[in-house]
Amino acid sequence: MGYKIQVYTKSVAETISIGRSLGRILSSGDVVCLTGELGAGKTYFVKGLAGGLGVIGIRGKGVTSPTFIIIREYKGRLPLYHIDLYRIGVVEDLRDIGMEEVIYGRGVTAIEWAERIADRLPDERIEITLRYEDKKTRLIEMTAFGRHHTQVLKKTAGELEKIADKR
Amino acid sequence: MSYILGIETSCDETAAAVLKDGRHLLSGIVGYQWEIHNRYGGIVPELACRRHIEVIYPITEEAVKKADITLNNLTAIAVTSGPGLIGALLVGVSFAKSLSYALKIPLISVNHLEGHLWAISLEKRVQRPFIGLVVSGGHTNLYIVEDIGRYQLIGSTFDDAAGEAFDKVAKVLGLGYPGGPAIERCAASGDPKAIAFPRALSKKKGFDFSFSGIKTAVISYVRDRYAISHVDEIPDVLKGEERVKADIAAGFQQAVVDILVSKTINAACETGINRVVISGGVACNRLLRKEMDLQTQKHKIKVYVPGPKYCTDNAGMIAWLGYKYYKKGIFADLRLNPDAQSSIG
Protein backbone atom coordinates (compact mmCIF):
# COMPACT_ATOMS: atom_id res chain seq x y z
CA MET A 1 0.00 0.00 0.00
CA GLY A 2 1.31 3.45 -0.89
CA TYR A 3 1.65 6.70 1.02
CA LYS A 4 -1.76 8.27 1.52
CA ILE A 5 -3.25 11.65 2.48
CA GLN A 6 -6.85 12.76 2.88
CA VAL A 7 -8.42 16.19 2.53
CA TYR A 8 -12.00 17.42 2.77
CA THR A 9 -13.05 20.19 0.40
CA LYS A 10 -16.14 22.34 0.86
CA SER A 11 -16.40 23.86 -2.61
CA VAL A 12 -15.33 23.54 -6.22
CA ALA A 13 -12.82 26.34 -5.59
CA GLU A 14 -11.20 24.31 -2.80
CA THR A 15 -11.02 21.21 -5.01
CA ILE A 16 -9.30 23.31 -7.69
CA SER A 17 -6.88 24.66 -5.12
CA ILE A 18 -5.84 21.16 -3.96
CA GLY A 19 -5.26 20.22 -7.60
CA ARG A 20 -3.19 23.35 -8.10
CA SER A 21 -0.89 22.50 -5.17
CA LEU A 22 -0.22 19.07 -6.66
CA GLY A 23 0.22 20.53 -10.16
CA ARG A 24 2.96 22.89 -8.97
CA ILE A 25 5.04 19.94 -7.76
CA LEU A 26 4.49 17.40 -10.57
CA SER A 27 7.41 16.65 -12.85
CA SER A 28 8.06 15.11 -16.24
CA GLY A 29 6.52 11.66 -16.75
CA ASP A 30 4.20 11.81 -13.72
CA VAL A 31 0.85 10.04 -13.92
CA VAL A 32 -2.25 11.06 -11.94
CA CYS A 33 -5.22 8.68 -11.96
CA LEU A 34 -8.61 10.01 -10.92
CA THR A 35 -11.54 7.99 -9.66
CA GLY A 36 -14.91 9.28 -8.55
CA GLU A 37 -18.49 9.18 -9.70
CA LEU A 38 -20.13 11.63 -12.07
CA GLY A 39 -20.22 15.06 -10.45
CA ALA A 40 -17.50 14.28 -7.88
CA GLY A 41 -15.24 17.00 -9.28
CA LYS A 42 -12.60 15.09 -11.26
CA THR A 43 -12.44 17.61 -14.11
CA TYR A 44 -12.26 20.51 -11.63
CA PHE A 45 -9.40 18.80 -9.79
CA VAL A 46 -7.56 18.51 -13.12
CA LYS A 47 -8.40 22.16 -13.82
CA GLY A 48 -6.45 23.04 -10.67
CA LEU A 49 -3.67 20.62 -11.53
CA ALA A 50 -3.36 22.26 -14.95
CA GLY A 51 -3.23 25.68 -13.32
CA GLY A 52 -0.32 24.47 -11.19
CA LEU A 53 1.41 23.35 -14.38
CA GLY A 54 0.91 26.78 -15.95
CA VAL A 55 -1.69 25.67 -18.50
CA ILE A 56 -3.72 28.60 -19.82
CA GLY A 57 -6.16 26.88 -22.21
CA ILE A 58 -8.79 28.52 -24.37
CA ARG A 59 -9.31 32.10 -23.24
CA GLY A 60 -7.75 31.42 -19.87
CA LYS A 61 -10.15 28.61 -18.95
CA GLY A 62 -7.53 25.95 -18.35
CA VAL A 63 -8.80 22.46 -19.03
CA THR A 64 -12.37 21.69 -20.06
CA SER A 65 -14.08 18.31 -20.12
CA PRO A 66 -12.26 15.90 -22.45
CA THR A 67 -15.23 13.53 -22.57
CA PHE A 68 -16.08 14.31 -26.17
CA ILE A 69 -12.67 13.75 -27.74
CA ILE A 70 -11.25 11.40 -25.04
CA ILE A 71 -7.81 13.01 -24.89
CA ARG A 72 -6.75 16.64 -24.87
CA GLU A 73 -3.24 17.99 -24.89
CA TYR A 74 -2.25 21.27 -23.23
CA LYS A 75 0.92 23.31 -23.16
CA GLY A 76 2.22 24.36 -19.76
CA ARG A 77 5.47 24.20 -17.81
CA LEU A 78 5.24 20.59 -19.01
CA PRO A 79 2.82 19.16 -21.58
CA LEU A 80 -0.38 17.96 -19.91
CA TYR A 81 -2.35 15.07 -21.39
CA HIS A 82 -5.88 15.01 -20.04
CA ILE A 83 -7.56 11.67 -20.71
CA ASP A 84 -11.19 10.76 -20.04
CA LEU A 85 -12.17 7.09 -20.13
CA TYR A 86 -15.86 7.79 -19.50
CA ARG A 87 -16.80 6.61 -22.98
CA ILE A 88 -14.20 3.91 -23.40
CA GLY A 89 -16.10 0.68 -23.75
CA VAL A 90 -13.68 -1.85 -25.13
CA VAL A 91 -10.09 -2.60 -24.24
CA GLU A 92 -8.60 -2.05 -27.69
CA ASP A 93 -9.58 1.60 -27.33
CA LEU A 94 -6.46 2.33 -25.29
CA ARG A 95 -4.11 1.66 -28.14
CA ASP A 96 -6.42 3.61 -30.37
CA ILE A 97 -6.02 6.82 -28.40
CA GLY A 98 -2.26 6.32 -28.08
CA MET A 99 -2.44 6.17 -24.31
CA GLU A 100 0.69 4.15 -23.62
CA GLU A 101 2.73 6.57 -25.69
CA VAL A 102 1.45 9.40 -23.52
CA ILE A 103 1.82 7.70 -20.12
CA TYR A 104 5.44 6.81 -20.77
CA GLY A 105 6.22 10.15 -22.45
CA ARG A 106 7.74 13.29 -20.95
CA GLY A 107 4.55 15.14 -20.11
CA VAL A 108 2.19 14.84 -17.17
CA THR A 109 -0.81 12.56 -17.69
CA ALA A 110 -4.11 12.93 -15.84
CA ILE A 111 -6.59 10.09 -16.38
CA GLU A 112 -10.25 10.39 -15.40
CA TRP A 113 -12.22 7.17 -14.75
CA ALA A 114 -8.86 5.43 -14.34
CA GLU A 115 -10.51 2.52 -12.48
CA ARG A 116 -11.79 1.32 -15.85
CA ILE A 117 -8.27 0.24 -16.76
CA ALA A 118 -7.08 -0.59 -13.23
CA ASP A 119 -5.03 -3.58 -14.38
CA ARG A 120 -3.20 -1.56 -17.01
CA LEU A 121 -2.15 1.50 -15.05
CA PRO A 122 1.59 2.08 -14.59
CA ASP A 123 3.05 0.80 -11.29
CA GLU A 124 4.27 4.31 -10.40
CA ARG A 125 1.43 6.80 -10.10
CA ILE A 126 -0.69 8.98 -7.84
CA GLU A 127 -4.27 7.89 -7.36
CA ILE A 128 -6.87 10.51 -6.53
CA THR A 129 -10.25 9.33 -5.28
CA LEU A 130 -12.99 11.92 -4.91
CA ARG A 131 -15.88 10.88 -2.70
CA TYR A 132 -19.22 12.62 -2.59
CA GLU A 133 -20.04 13.45 1.06
CA ASP A 134 -22.85 15.93 0.58
CA LYS A 135 -23.93 18.58 -1.93
CA LYS A 136 -20.77 20.65 -1.42
CA THR A 137 -18.35 18.42 0.46
CA ARG A 138 -15.93 15.97 -1.11
CA LEU A 139 -13.37 13.70 0.51
CA ILE A 140 -10.23 13.68 -1.60
CA GLU A 141 -7.93 10.77 -1.00
CA MET A 142 -4.50 10.81 -2.62
CA THR A 143 -2.32 7.71 -2.69
CA ALA A 144 1.17 7.50 -4.14
CA PHE A 145 2.73 4.38 -5.62
CA GLY A 146 6.49 4.25 -6.24
CA ARG A 147 9.31 6.26 -4.69
CA HIS A 148 9.16 9.31 -6.93
CA HIS A 149 5.40 9.77 -6.73
CA THR A 150 5.60 9.35 -2.94
CA GLN A 151 8.10 12.22 -2.81
CA VAL A 152 5.76 14.35 -4.94
CA LEU A 153 2.80 13.62 -2.69
CA LYS A 154 4.79 14.27 0.52
CA LYS A 155 5.81 17.66 -0.85
CA THR A 156 2.20 18.36 -1.79
CA ALA A 157 1.08 17.43 1.73
CA GLY A 158 3.62 19.92 3.08
CA GLU A 159 2.26 22.65 0.82
CA LEU A 160 -1.32 21.89 1.83
CA GLU A 161 -0.38 22.16 5.51
CA LYS A 162 1.23 25.55 4.93
CA ILE A 163 -1.95 26.76 3.20
CA ALA A 164 -4.09 25.38 6.03
CA ASP A 165 -1.88 27.13 8.62
CA LYS A 166 -2.28 30.48 6.86
CA ARG A 167 -6.05 30.17 7.12
CA MET B 1 -20.49 23.80 -63.47
CA SER B 2 -19.02 22.44 -60.25
CA TYR B 3 -19.74 19.42 -58.08
CA ILE B 4 -18.21 19.45 -54.61
CA LEU B 5 -18.20 16.23 -52.58
CA GLY B 6 -18.33 16.82 -48.83
CA ILE B 7 -17.13 14.19 -46.33
CA GLU B 8 -17.76 14.37 -42.58
CA THR B 9 -16.65 11.76 -40.01
CA SER B 10 -15.68 13.78 -36.95
CA CYS B 11 -17.74 11.81 -34.46
CA ASP B 12 -20.31 9.04 -34.80
CA GLU B 13 -21.96 10.01 -38.06
CA THR B 14 -20.59 9.04 -41.45
CA ALA B 15 -21.77 11.61 -43.97
CA ALA B 16 -21.30 12.42 -47.64
CA ALA B 17 -23.00 15.07 -49.78
CA VAL B 18 -22.79 16.49 -53.28
CA LEU B 19 -23.27 20.22 -53.82
CA LYS B 20 -23.75 21.65 -57.30
CA ASP B 21 -22.52 25.17 -58.10
CA GLY B 22 -22.35 26.08 -54.41
CA ARG B 23 -26.14 26.24 -54.20
CA HIS B 24 -27.94 23.03 -54.97
CA LEU B 25 -27.50 20.20 -52.53
CA LEU B 26 -28.08 17.24 -54.84
CA SER B 27 -27.64 14.64 -52.11
CA GLY B 28 -26.83 14.33 -48.44
CA ILE B 29 -26.44 10.90 -46.89
CA VAL B 30 -25.87 10.37 -43.17
CA GLY B 31 -25.14 7.00 -41.61
CA TYR B 32 -26.09 7.08 -37.93
CA GLN B 33 -24.48 4.79 -35.38
CA TRP B 34 -26.88 5.18 -32.46
CA GLU B 35 -27.73 1.51 -32.27
CA ILE B 36 -24.03 0.63 -31.95
CA HIS B 37 -23.33 3.04 -29.08
CA ASN B 38 -26.65 3.02 -27.26
CA ARG B 39 -25.78 0.18 -24.88
CA TYR B 40 -22.67 2.02 -23.73
CA GLY B 41 -24.57 5.25 -22.99
CA GLY B 42 -22.30 7.21 -25.27
CA ILE B 43 -19.98 6.99 -28.23
CA VAL B 44 -17.28 4.37 -28.08
CA PRO B 45 -14.42 5.69 -30.24
CA GLU B 46 -13.09 2.34 -31.40
CA LEU B 47 -16.53 1.19 -32.51
CA ALA B 48 -17.16 4.53 -34.25
CA CYS B 49 -13.94 4.22 -36.27
CA ARG B 50 -14.64 0.66 -37.34
CA ARG B 51 -18.11 1.63 -38.47
CA HIS B 52 -16.79 4.65 -40.40
CA ILE B 53 -14.37 2.40 -42.26
CA GLU B 54 -17.15 -0.03 -43.14
CA VAL B 55 -19.60 2.51 -44.45
CA ILE B 56 -17.64 5.46 -45.82
CA TYR B 57 -17.36 4.11 -49.32
CA PRO B 58 -20.97 2.86 -49.66
CA ILE B 59 -22.24 6.16 -48.26
CA THR B 60 -20.12 8.20 -50.65
CA GLU B 61 -21.24 6.00 -53.52
CA GLU B 62 -24.85 6.50 -52.53
CA ALA B 63 -24.39 10.30 -52.34
CA VAL B 64 -22.83 10.41 -55.80
CA LYS B 65 -25.47 8.11 -57.23
CA LYS B 66 -28.32 10.09 -55.71
CA ALA B 67 -26.82 13.26 -57.20
CA ASP B 68 -27.13 11.49 -60.55
CA ILE B 69 -23.45 11.92 -61.41
CA THR B 70 -20.37 9.70 -61.29
CA LEU B 71 -17.14 10.12 -59.31
CA ASN B 72 -15.52 11.43 -62.50
CA ASN B 73 -17.85 14.43 -62.53
CA LEU B 74 -16.57 15.68 -59.15
CA THR B 75 -14.74 19.02 -59.11
CA ALA B 76 -13.20 18.88 -55.63
CA ILE B 77 -13.46 17.04 -52.30
CA ALA B 78 -13.99 18.84 -49.02
CA VAL B 79 -13.39 16.99 -45.77
CA THR B 80 -13.70 17.73 -42.05
CA SER B 81 -10.17 17.70 -40.60
CA GLY B 82 -11.13 18.61 -37.02
CA PRO B 83 -12.09 19.02 -34.28
CA GLY B 84 -13.42 15.61 -33.29
CA LEU B 85 -12.35 12.08 -32.43
CA ILE B 86 -8.91 11.57 -33.91
CA GLY B 87 -9.55 8.03 -35.17
CA ALA B 88 -12.89 9.00 -36.68
CA LEU B 89 -11.43 12.06 -38.42
CA LEU B 90 -8.58 9.96 -39.74
CA VAL B 91 -10.99 7.72 -41.65
CA GLY B 92 -12.61 10.65 -43.47
CA VAL B 93 -9.36 12.48 -44.15
CA SER B 94 -7.58 9.37 -45.46
CA PHE B 95 -10.53 8.48 -47.63
CA ALA B 96 -10.79 12.02 -49.04
CA LYS B 97 -7.05 12.11 -49.69
CA SER B 98 -7.09 8.83 -51.61
CA LEU B 99 -10.09 9.89 -53.64
CA SER B 100 -8.54 13.26 -54.43
CA TYR B 101 -5.33 11.52 -55.55
CA ALA B 102 -7.14 8.91 -57.63
CA LEU B 103 -9.46 11.41 -59.33
CA LYS B 104 -6.76 14.10 -59.62
CA ILE B 105 -9.02 16.77 -58.16
CA PRO B 106 -8.35 19.31 -55.38
CA LEU B 107 -8.65 18.46 -51.68
CA ILE B 108 -10.12 21.03 -49.30
CA SER B 109 -9.86 20.98 -45.51
CA VAL B 110 -12.86 22.27 -43.55
CA ASN B 111 -13.17 22.91 -39.82
CA HIS B 112 -16.17 21.17 -38.30
CA LEU B 113 -17.20 24.20 -36.20
CA GLU B 114 -17.02 26.43 -39.25
CA GLY B 115 -19.29 23.93 -40.97
CA HIS B 116 -21.92 24.29 -38.24
CA LEU B 117 -21.74 28.09 -38.32
CA TRP B 118 -22.58 28.16 -42.03
CA ALA B 119 -24.97 25.18 -42.22
CA ILE B 120 -27.88 27.63 -42.34
CA SER B 121 -26.60 28.72 -45.80
CA LEU B 122 -27.90 25.42 -47.21
CA GLU B 123 -31.39 26.79 -46.54
CA LYS B 124 -31.19 30.56 -46.62
CA ARG B 125 -28.85 33.48 -46.92
CA VAL B 126 -27.92 35.26 -43.71
CA GLN B 127 -26.45 38.73 -43.84
CA ARG B 128 -23.02 39.11 -42.21
CA PRO B 129 -21.92 39.74 -39.56
CA PHE B 130 -23.92 37.49 -37.27
CA ILE B 131 -23.66 35.93 -33.82
CA GLY B 132 -23.17 32.17 -34.12
CA LEU B 133 -23.88 29.66 -31.37
CA VAL B 134 -22.55 26.16 -31.95
CA VAL B 135 -24.07 23.90 -29.34
CA SER B 136 -23.52 20.15 -29.40
CA GLY B 137 -22.13 17.20 -27.49
CA GLY B 138 -18.60 18.50 -27.83
CA HIS B 139 -18.98 22.25 -28.07
CA THR B 140 -20.77 25.27 -26.66
CA ASN B 141 -19.15 28.17 -28.47
CA LEU B 142 -20.36 31.69 -29.21
CA TYR B 143 -18.77 33.50 -32.13
CA ILE B 144 -18.96 36.78 -33.92
CA VAL B 145 -18.98 35.63 -37.55
CA GLU B 146 -17.68 38.44 -39.74
CA ASP B 147 -17.25 36.46 -42.92
CA ILE B 148 -16.05 33.09 -44.17
CA GLY B 149 -12.79 32.36 -42.38
CA ARG B 150 -13.20 35.37 -40.07
CA TYR B 151 -14.43 34.42 -36.63
CA GLN B 152 -14.05 35.73 -33.14
CA LEU B 153 -14.68 33.31 -30.28
CA ILE B 154 -16.41 35.35 -27.57
CA GLY B 155 -17.72 32.61 -25.30
CA SER B 156 -17.14 28.94 -24.53
CA THR B 157 -17.66 26.49 -21.70
CA PHE B 158 -15.52 26.26 -18.57
CA ASP B 159 -16.24 22.55 -18.21
CA ASP B 160 -18.85 20.40 -19.99
CA ALA B 161 -20.51 21.14 -23.32
CA ALA B 162 -24.31 21.58 -23.21
CA GLY B 163 -24.90 18.36 -25.14
CA GLU B 164 -22.51 16.51 -22.87
CA ALA B 165 -24.62 17.62 -19.89
CA PHE B 166 -27.72 16.25 -21.67
CA ASP B 167 -25.94 12.93 -22.32
CA LYS B 168 -24.60 12.60 -18.79
CA VAL B 169 -27.85 13.54 -17.06
CA ALA B 170 -29.78 11.17 -19.34
CA LYS B 171 -27.38 8.40 -18.38
CA VAL B 172 -27.68 9.19 -14.66
CA LEU B 173 -31.48 9.07 -14.91
CA GLY B 174 -31.32 5.86 -16.94
CA LEU B 175 -32.95 7.43 -20.01
CA GLY B 176 -30.53 6.13 -22.63
CA TYR B 177 -28.46 7.65 -25.43
CA PRO B 178 -28.45 10.08 -27.22
CA GLY B 179 -29.32 12.18 -24.20
CA GLY B 180 -30.87 15.18 -25.96
CA PRO B 181 -33.93 13.47 -27.45
CA ALA B 182 -34.23 11.21 -24.36
CA ILE B 183 -34.39 14.17 -21.96
CA GLU B 184 -36.76 16.03 -24.27
CA ARG B 185 -39.16 13.07 -24.40
CA CYS B 186 -39.07 12.57 -20.65
CA ALA B 187 -39.44 16.32 -19.96
CA ALA B 188 -42.60 16.54 -22.07
CA SER B 189 -44.81 15.43 -19.18
CA GLY B 190 -42.83 17.26 -16.47
CA ASP B 191 -43.16 20.65 -14.83
CA PRO B 192 -40.08 22.78 -15.57
CA LYS B 193 -40.78 24.89 -12.48
CA ALA B 194 -41.12 21.99 -10.03
CA ILE B 195 -37.39 21.80 -9.28
CA ALA B 196 -35.13 24.83 -9.64
CA PHE B 197 -31.69 23.94 -10.92
CA PRO B 198 -28.95 26.59 -10.94
CA ARG B 199 -28.29 28.84 -13.94
CA ALA B 200 -24.51 29.01 -13.75
CA LEU B 201 -22.74 32.26 -14.67
CA SER B 202 -26.08 33.84 -15.60
CA LYS B 203 -25.33 36.97 -13.58
CA LYS B 204 -21.71 37.11 -14.66
CA LYS B 205 -20.51 39.41 -17.40
CA GLY B 206 -19.21 37.87 -20.58
CA PHE B 207 -20.51 35.03 -22.69
CA ASP B 208 -18.93 31.96 -21.13
CA PHE B 209 -20.87 28.90 -20.06
CA SER B 210 -20.68 26.24 -17.37
CA PHE B 211 -22.84 23.10 -17.36
CA SER B 212 -21.02 20.81 -14.98
CA GLY B 213 -22.77 22.35 -11.95
CA ILE B 214 -26.26 21.62 -13.30
CA LYS B 215 -25.32 18.00 -13.84
CA THR B 216 -24.06 17.79 -10.26
CA ALA B 217 -27.19 19.59 -8.98
CA VAL B 218 -29.38 16.94 -10.62
CA ILE B 219 -27.33 14.19 -8.99
CA SER B 220 -27.44 15.92 -5.58
CA TYR B 221 -31.18 16.41 -5.85
CA VAL B 222 -31.86 12.70 -6.39
CA ARG B 223 -29.32 11.68 -3.74
CA ASP B 224 -30.90 13.89 -1.10
CA ARG B 225 -34.45 12.97 -2.00
CA TYR B 226 -33.86 9.21 -1.84
CA ALA B 227 -30.84 9.12 0.51
CA ILE B 228 -28.73 6.94 -1.75
CA SER B 229 -24.99 6.45 -1.61
CA HIS B 230 -23.93 6.17 -5.27
CA VAL B 231 -24.95 7.71 -8.57
CA ASP B 232 -25.30 4.29 -10.17
CA GLU B 233 -28.28 3.54 -7.91
CA ILE B 234 -30.29 6.41 -9.37
CA PRO B 235 -31.97 4.60 -12.30
CA ASP B 236 -33.20 1.93 -9.87
CA VAL B 237 -34.63 4.30 -7.25
CA LEU B 238 -36.35 6.24 -10.04
CA LYS B 239 -38.13 3.16 -11.39
CA GLY B 240 -41.85 3.85 -11.20
CA GLU B 241 -41.19 7.47 -10.19
CA GLU B 242 -42.19 8.76 -13.62
CA ARG B 243 -43.53 12.05 -12.27
CA VAL B 244 -40.26 12.89 -10.47
CA LYS B 245 -38.17 11.82 -13.43
CA ALA B 246 -40.18 14.02 -15.78
CA ASP B 247 -39.91 17.00 -13.43
CA ILE B 248 -36.15 16.56 -13.14
CA ALA B 249 -35.76 16.29 -16.92
CA ALA B 250 -38.00 19.33 -17.48
CA GLY B 251 -36.23 21.43 -14.82
CA PHE B 252 -32.82 20.47 -16.14
CA GLN B 253 -33.75 21.16 -19.76
CA GLN B 254 -35.23 24.54 -18.84
CA ALA B 255 -32.06 25.55 -16.96
CA VAL B 256 -29.77 24.64 -19.88
CA VAL B 257 -32.03 26.39 -22.39
CA ASP B 258 -32.29 29.53 -20.24
CA ILE B 259 -28.51 29.82 -20.05
CA LEU B 260 -28.04 29.32 -23.80
CA VAL B 261 -30.75 31.81 -24.68
CA SER B 262 -29.69 34.53 -22.26
CA LYS B 263 -25.99 34.41 -23.16
CA THR B 264 -26.74 34.46 -26.89
CA ILE B 265 -29.11 37.40 -26.56
CA ASN B 266 -26.61 39.26 -24.39
CA ALA B 267 -23.98 38.72 -27.08
CA ALA B 268 -26.28 40.12 -29.76
CA CYS B 269 -27.29 43.12 -27.63
CA GLU B 270 -23.78 43.99 -26.50
CA THR B 271 -22.23 43.72 -29.96
CA GLY B 272 -25.17 45.40 -31.65
CA ILE B 273 -25.35 42.53 -34.14
CA ASN B 274 -29.04 41.70 -34.40
CA ARG B 275 -28.74 38.42 -36.28
CA VAL B 276 -28.22 35.12 -34.50
CA VAL B 277 -27.52 31.70 -36.02
CA ILE B 278 -27.82 28.57 -33.89
CA SER B 279 -26.51 25.20 -34.94
CA GLY B 280 -25.18 21.87 -33.66
CA GLY B 281 -27.08 18.86 -32.35
CA VAL B 282 -28.56 20.65 -29.32
CA ALA B 283 -30.14 23.21 -31.69
CA CYS B 284 -32.64 20.44 -32.54
CA ASN B 285 -34.09 20.78 -29.05
CA ARG B 286 -37.61 22.13 -29.42
CA LEU B 287 -37.63 24.08 -26.18
CA LEU B 288 -34.41 25.84 -27.19
CA ARG B 289 -35.87 26.73 -30.59
CA LYS B 290 -39.10 27.97 -29.02
CA GLU B 291 -37.45 30.04 -26.28
CA MET B 292 -34.91 31.46 -28.70
CA ASP B 293 -37.75 32.56 -31.01
CA LEU B 294 -39.71 34.11 -28.17
CA GLN B 295 -36.84 35.96 -26.50
CA THR B 296 -35.20 37.23 -29.68
CA GLN B 297 -38.51 38.73 -30.82
CA LYS B 298 -38.60 40.80 -27.64
CA HIS B 299 -35.17 42.21 -28.46
CA LYS B 300 -35.82 42.65 -32.19
CA ILE B 301 -33.15 40.12 -33.03
CA LYS B 302 -33.60 37.85 -36.01
CA VAL B 303 -32.82 34.23 -35.25
CA TYR B 304 -31.90 31.58 -37.81
CA VAL B 305 -31.93 27.89 -36.97
CA PRO B 306 -31.35 25.30 -39.70
CA GLY B 307 -33.73 22.36 -39.99
CA PRO B 308 -32.74 19.46 -37.71
CA LYS B 309 -30.93 17.57 -40.50
CA TYR B 310 -28.54 20.51 -40.96
CA CYS B 311 -28.16 21.16 -37.21
CA THR B 312 -26.69 17.73 -36.55
CA ASP B 313 -23.50 16.56 -38.22
CA ASN B 314 -23.86 16.46 -41.98
CA ALA B 315 -21.66 16.71 -45.05
CA GLY B 316 -23.75 19.34 -46.85
CA MET B 317 -22.30 22.07 -44.64
CA ILE B 318 -18.79 20.79 -45.35
CA ALA B 319 -19.45 20.78 -49.10
CA TRP B 320 -20.86 24.34 -48.86
CA LEU B 321 -17.67 25.67 -47.28
CA GLY B 322 -15.65 23.49 -49.61
CA TYR B 323 -17.19 25.36 -52.54
CA LYS B 324 -16.33 28.73 -50.97
CA TYR B 325 -12.71 27.69 -50.43
CA TYR B 326 -12.60 26.18 -53.91
CA LYS B 327 -13.61 29.56 -55.33
CA LYS B 328 -10.92 31.27 -53.24
CA GLY B 329 -8.37 28.68 -54.37
CA ILE B 330 -7.59 27.55 -50.81
CA PHE B 331 -6.62 23.88 -51.03
CA ALA B 332 -5.05 21.26 -48.80
CA ASP B 333 -2.46 18.81 -50.07
CA LEU B 334 -1.92 15.12 -49.44
CA ARG B 335 0.01 15.87 -46.26
CA LEU B 336 -3.27 16.95 -44.62
CA ASN B 337 -3.58 15.49 -41.14
CA PRO B 338 -6.62 15.55 -38.88
CA ASP B 339 -6.40 17.71 -35.76
CA ALA B 340 -8.66 16.57 -32.90
CA GLN B 341 -8.43 19.93 -31.12
CA SER B 342 -8.42 22.36 -34.02
CA SER B 343 -10.28 25.60 -33.36
CA ILE B 344 -11.43 28.75 -35.15
CA GLY B 345 -11.49 32.34 -33.91
**Distinct helical segment count of chain A:** 5
How would you characterize the largest beta sheet of chain B?
5 strands, mixed
CATH architecture of the largest domain in chain B: 2-Layer Sandwich
Task: Just name the CATH architecture of chain A.
Answer: 3-Layer(aba) Sandwich
**SSE class of chain B:** alpha/beta
CATH superfamily (homologous) name of chain A: P-loop containing nucleotide triphosphate hydrolases
Q: pLDDT below 50 for ≥5 consecutive residues: which ranges of chain A? A: none
Provide mean pLDDT of chain A, rounded. 91
For the terminal residues of chain B, how far apart are their CA atoms?
32 Å
- Computed over alpha carbons, the radius of gyration of chain B is 21 Å
Beta content of chain B: 15-25%
How much of the polypeptide of chain A forms β-strand, as a percent range? 25-35%
Form type of chain B: globular
Mean pLDDT of chain B: 95
Condensed summary:
The complex is a heterodimer of chains A (167) and B (345). Chain A is of the alpha/beta class and 167 residues long.
